[in-house]
Amino acid sequence: MADKKTHGASSDTADIKENCKIAALSYIFILWLIPLLLKPHSKFAQFHAKQGLVIFVLDVLVALVSWVPFFGQLLFLAMIALSALAFIRALSGQSWQIPYVYEWSRKVTIH
Predict the structure, then answer these.
(1) Angle formed at CA 90 by CA 87 and CA 95, multiple of 5 degrees
(2) In the chain, is it the N or the C terminus that has fewer CB atoms within a 10 Å radius of its CB?
């Protein structure tokens, strides 16, 4: 599940080092737009921006049920924890394929 992607090309390593901070923004509510729009040629930033978009949509759905006692608040806290963990991993240069989120993010195409 969690992995530090090993990229063969030094350009990929440079991409990660250069864009890990902006990629981490992807997991803070709507800030996934920043790497999505400002770093269109960065595979690393795009990877995290697309996952951030999926998490954002899930956040909106969870907000709709957060009024449900216990269950809603538990989902809300789980989403905060997931976003925090993804933020930390992106900041450290990891390409973490979040279960289910990654599969949905692969379907996102931005041209």
Answers:
(1) 130
(2) C
What is the spatial distance between Cα 90 and Cα 65, in angstroms, rounded to a whole number?
A: 28
| Residue 79 pLDDT exceeds 70 | yes
Which pLDDT tens digit goes with each residue over 44-76? 999 999 999 999 999 999 999 988 889 999 999
User: Whose CA is closest to 3, among 80, 96, 93, 104?
Assistant: 96
- Over residues 31-37, the mean pLDDT reads 94
